[in-house]
Amino acid sequence: MPSDVISPVGHSTVGSLLRAPFISARGIAKSFGGNHVLRSVDIDLYPGEVVGLLGENGAGKSTLMQILSGGLQADAGSIEMHGKPICFLSVAEGIAAGVSFVHQELSVIGALSVAENLHLGRMPKTKLGFVDGSAMRTAAGRILARVGASNIDPLREAGTLRAGEQQLVEIARAAARDPSLLILDEPTSSLTPHEVEGFTAYVREARNRGAAIVFITHRLEEALALCDRIVVLRNGSIVSEGPARETSREQIVTDMTGKPAIYEHRPRHIPATEIALKLENVSDGRHLHEVDLEVRKGEIFGLFGLVGAGRTELLDLIHGVRKLKSGEIKLFGEKHVVRDPSVSVRSGVVIVPEGRKTAGILPLHSVRDNASISSLRRFSRSPFKNSSREKQRMEEFRASLGIRMASDDQRISTLSGGNQQKVIFARALMANPRLLLLDEPTHGVDVGAKVDLYSIIAREAEHGLTVVMASSEVPEILALCDRVAVLSKGRLAGVLSRNEMTEDHILTMAFREH
Amino acid sequence: EPPKGGTIAAVENTKGPIKIAFLSFQNNPFWTPVTEGAAAANGYLSNSNATVDFVDLGNTLSAEAVVAGIEGALAKKYDGIVVVPIFDGTARIINEATEAGVPVFNIIAEGAAPSERLAFIGQDATSAGRQIGEYIAKRMNGKGKLGVITGYFGATQHTQRMNGAIDYLKTEFPEIEIVGPFENKDKAEAAYSLTQDMMTSNPDISMIYVTAGGPFGAAKAVKDLGLTGRVGVVGFDHTPDNMQYLKTGEMVGLLDQAPYQQALDASVMLYNYLVAGKEPPSKVIPVVGKLLTPADAK
Amino acid sequence: MGGVEAIRALGRQREASVLVMLAAVAIYLSFASDYFLEPRNLLNVGRQASVVAIVALGQALVIIARGIDLSVGSVIGLSAVVAAVLMRDTGSETVGLVAGLLTGLACGLVNGVLYTRFRINPFIATLGTLSVARGMALLMTGGIPVTFGGFAEFVGAGRIAGIPVSLLVMIVLAVAVHIFASQTVRGREIYAIGDNPKAASLAGVNLKRTRLFVFAFSGFLAGLGGLILAGNLASADPNLGMGYELDVIAAVILGGTALSGGRGSIVGVIIGALLMALLNNAFVLLGISAYWQVVTKGLVIIFAVGLDGLQRGAEED
Amino acid sequence: MGGVEAIRALGRQREASVLVMLAAVAIYLSFASDYFLEPRNLLNVGRQASVVAIVALGQALVIIARGIDLSVGSVIGLSAVVAAVLMRDTGSETVGLVAGLLTGLACGLVNGVLYTRFRINPFIATLGTLSVARGMALLMTGGIPVTFGGFAEFVGAGRIAGIPVSLLVMIVLAVAVHIFASQTVRGREIYAIGDNPKAASLAGVNLKRTRLFVFAFSGFLAGLGGLILAGNLASADPNLGMGYELDVIAAVILGGTALSGGRGSIVGVIIGALLMALLNNAFVLLGISAYWQVVTKGLVIIFAVGLDGLQRGAEED
Ligand SMILES: Nc1ncnc2c1ncn2[C@@H]1O[C@H](COP(=O)(O)OP(=O)(O)OP(=O)(O)O)[C@@H](O)[C@H]1O
Ligand SMILES: Nc1ncnc2c1ncn2[C@@H]1O[C@H](COP(=O)(O)OP(=O)(O)OP(=O)(O)O)[C@@H](O)[C@H]1O
Ligand SMILES: [Mg+2]
Ligand SMILES: [Mg+2]
Description:
The complex is a heterotetramer, with 1 copy of chain A, 1 copy of chain B and 2 copies of chain C. Chain A is α/β, with parallel strands linked by helices. Chain A has 3 domains: 23-257, 3-Layer(aba) Sandwich (Rossmann fold); 275-348 and 433-510, Rossmann fold (3-Layer(aba) Sandwich); 361-426, no CATH class. Chain A has 18 helices and 20 strands. In chain A, the strands form 4 sheets. A 6-stranded mixed sheet of chain A has the order 6-7-8-3-9-10, with helices on both faces. Chain A is globular and about 70 Å long. Chain A starts with 22 loop residues before the first strand and ends with a helix. Chain B has helices spanning 31-46, 63-75, 91-99, 125-140, 156-172, 188-201, 215-224, 240-248, 259-276, 294-297; strands spanning 18-24, 50-56, 80-83, 104-108, 119-122, 144-150, 176-183, 205-210, 232-236, 251-256, 284-286, 290-292. The radius of gyration of chain B is 20 Å and the shape is elongated. The radius of gyration of chain C is 20 Å and the shape is globular. In chain C, α2 packs antiparallel against α14, α3 (39-64) packs parallel to α8 (165-183) and α4 (72-90) packs across α11 (207-233). Chain C contains 14 helices and 4 strands. A two-stranded antiparallel sheet of chain C has the order 1-4. In chain C, strands 2-3 form a two-stranded antiparallel ribbon. Chain C has one domain (39-309): ABC transporter involved in vitamin B12 uptake, BtuC (Orthogonal Bundle). By secondary structure, chain C is an all-alpha fold. At the B-D interface, β7, α6, α7 and α8 of B face α3, α11, α13 and α14 of D. The structure holds adenosine-5'-triphosphate (2 copies) and magnesium ion (2 copies). Residues 162, 287, 305, 307-313, 354, 440, 472 of chain A line the site of one adenosine-5'-triphosphate (ATP).
């Protein structure tokens, strides 16, 4: 998708060599417990340059940036800013020195308005010492417009915004500080193509103003289109570095993973006989209207739509989170009465939900507990849990999904995002499902892991598992799906078969009701 | 003729209808005879065109509740108020009511701070403590160990009852050793545990004095420890729980405050004052508690 | 229509259902008792709500910031006792009153430091100070109430043009705290740290200082509440305020503040405190028996919040 | 070394600091008082902790599931009263005891339904039942305690081979609940919904049923606690258990359970309850002067948890 949104023009022509670096780090090392996350990393960031920092999940990208911004302290190494050694002991010191960080995890304050969020930590005051609401509102409007989000009302409570809009608010918050160093850690993961456009324009503007920018993403096309220089991190060391123009997607993937990893769609024959899932005239009374669908057993069925199209709602309906207003859902020919997700899970309908942090992980629990939570009742006929079965299945899934962790007793919150997502996959697959629902399954997942996940999905489908997958990434749909249904504003715009699927076609349908 | 248990007769009503508010709490059996006394007064005075309305101040005893109750009674334009003020902090509102022309009759217990009430009928907590102290000394033959359990640290009535006894014993019977005091927050189960622990660390205790709620918990502990007859419990109030242990012998003394009579007499005296301006016999009408002993329980 | 829209918007506020409950009780009372609507009675209700409401203002900020302060009841007692003892011993009213307020502030600071520096869960830290402060009040007085009067008595029991001074104090403070919470930087930061402490901290909000502030403020208001309460009673009892913490927290939560932090309004707090005072007034006016009072109080609390829950329906948690 | 490692691992447990405090108080007492180490005294401490501990077992599950149950104190009273009244009126002990336990269960179910179906914040819902249950107990008895004896008295006050029966009951229940919480599916699900309710629900944990379960269980144990407490006194007072909720919650939190849910251990709960009982025992054994008892209790609570906070250092909340 993003390749045509971000045009590969306008690279900075000023050679990096001509300037002094804004920040320059030498020999940065960091480990957590016995886990060496960074091993002697050297990096220079120049004003007026966009650096794409790429690497697999857990490569250490976020950790490195946290160290540069003052959120973490390095175990070894030195950092110089404008040639002077510095050592930020807190985020506040980093902010004061002109570093802005858009974090990987959404961190808007839901209870505050958008305008307040944008000014948090430095709200303007009137002469009397009160918050200057009108100044804040005007400034907020201006900043939002800069990142292409002028449609967001500055007075709205931030908690009521969509994830993508919240992400834009965070970008705007960083932008508002006119930072000298702007760190963007997977800022685009829940943006629509349109929103990505506004974002791109802002990044270019900031670069032209002389900001040093670090852009972390798992969407390689975006990185290639937007960045001047690409730095690839693997296992805590920099493995390649060079101008974006001189590298390619394939080269980056090889650098990241140590091997070329391309997932090829293999056409499969799906017997037309058994209908696994049938939706008849399904409405939820709010977001979805009269949806009819048929998904065959063993099929990988895509759901595409723009943000707000109702993909999540549709999956929620099937999973029983949301109540059916009218219509009927049939599962393998039987009426599927959904009262509660727990009933669905027991009848073999599982989900990998959107929003890993809010709806996916149990942050205080171990990796194993996270993976087994959906299967406890299946593993054991008695009220007692079956720990050995859990351990054994965990080990199988660790191996088959390639989950990187020190031990399965480790808290899941200490894993990198992509590995957390694999654990959620393990949870779903462990429950031995008949129907697997995936909502944005590869958000924040690196290419290597993505390929792993694609293979896993395809393998499971091969074995007869039915998969319904909502995704915002057209390449993903194209790579994986046997058919795709396109939703537009809560209505079914159409279903495309494999040979009808093209990027153009899909996007046109998605805009139908707009 | 006053009803049974009352000692004051009502005068003739020449004033027209009279409304008296009777403000009291209700959180344990102690209050039952108070309520009954108020009801009896209402029945008796209804013949004289007067009503006594019982207003329940709830089940948490506090000065604020009393203040709110009096404020409410003033808003409802009662002619007179009978109240159980208990706390020091109630003097101000009582004065305010008196100034507003609504006489207030205090019963059972009042704070140490003086107020402009019409009169107070009740037991003086310090002398009640002393009365019990005398009894304790007699039972202990002037020597030995006495364990003390008080309701709430800092509750005036409890402290006065406690000090009334302790001060008396310290000066008159220095050979009696005091263990404690410990706080049981008016809870019988806490009295039980405290008694158990006191008997552990002072096996020679021969008497336990509980100043407020839950004395029967101490009695039950004595019983469970098999010390009946060797250790006695003294406390306050003629409630069914306490009486039971008075019968079986763990409880050896209970000081009763005649709450029924206090409630009835106070209401009638207030009525007499309202219709005939007849002042009560004195500002403070002491009620000498009746000390119930095992002999009374038989 | 603007009007209808406004009512709808009101209905979406969390405090709305408590307001409805308050109105329902008030309307019922105005029929059931001839005395309820008398200005004097209404002012009494206001006065009776005032101390709980004032202390609840501080508690609300603590809870919005994701803390809890169980010590307020004891701080009420300790501040009153310190003020009264110093007033008695120095003969200076000013010294006494200032010392009382500073005592409240100091208790709040201790709570705040225990939380921010010693990382003790606020529930436990303030449960500890609850006990320590009460013990100190008892030690200072030997358990015997101290007479307390003068200006504090005027604030606690006096009236200006018929209106109880403590009610006026409450109104002024409520307005001030409302403006503080909604219009100042510190106020907004309190909401931010309650909603998402980590994100707020990353955005540059000073977590420790803000937390320290809310606890100190809560302690200060509890101290003020203690002075008013003791002034009203003209007596500083070391047991003053015992058990207040539950009433105060209930007022805050009835008013729609979430225990999980980040949400809550000052208006709601005042409505919550008024509802509780109104119930007590109703019991006295209607002469309801103590046991039914206890039952009724529980039912009203459940209904007041239940309305809100039902209205929200299957929304979320 | 294995031993050192084991001690390190222990130190990382949240309950460790309370255990250290418990040990410190116990060691001090064994020097300061000749009576402390007497088996009889130790057993007394165990008995005194037993009711709080039993009720705290249920409360711990509620808090781990991100709830709170303020009604336990009143449920203790109501269950005892129901049991005693029915025993008196029907003459059957079995009817009485079963009715008492069912009353506790019913109160818990009501709390659970108010939370899960009517979406009332558990703090408010259980504050409501706190009041309603107490009122019902008072209404049933007219405020007058009812004699209670027989088997319940044996459980509450009896001994088997010198060991208090209620202590044995507590030990058996603690072991059972520990196994339940750590080894059963339902137990694991309780931790999961406390950690992240939304994620747990999507993963197939039945939120409503699990929440209903923990509240019902807490009510049931409170009912059992009521029977034991009343049995101990051979009397069912409608005011029985008043204020217990704070002791019970304090025991749970002292034991390292997080009020924010998802974390907590049953062993910790028992240690917390023992620490509180040990303190009361210490006051009597050492004859600590009245008001210092109150101060000391607060300080010990703060220290017990403060140790943990300091050790964790700058980690995070
Ligand atoms: N606080 C922590 N404690 C322990 N381990 C940690 C901690 N933070 C990060 N790690 C580990 O450090 C490694 C690097 O994590 P980091 O977040 O830097 O990866 P990343 O490159 O940003 O990955 P992703 O693309 O998934 O965001 C991971 O293995 C992670 O598990
Ligand atoms: N018009 C709207 N106004 C407010 N909120 C909306 C609107 N449409 C959708 N939403 C909310 O925005 C969120 C995202 O929308 P939805 O789940 O329908 O999108 P989707 O098709 O799943 O897309 P994505 O998952 O990419 O966000 C949902 O929580 C939904 O309730
Ligand atoms: Mg990262
Ligand atoms: Mg979605």
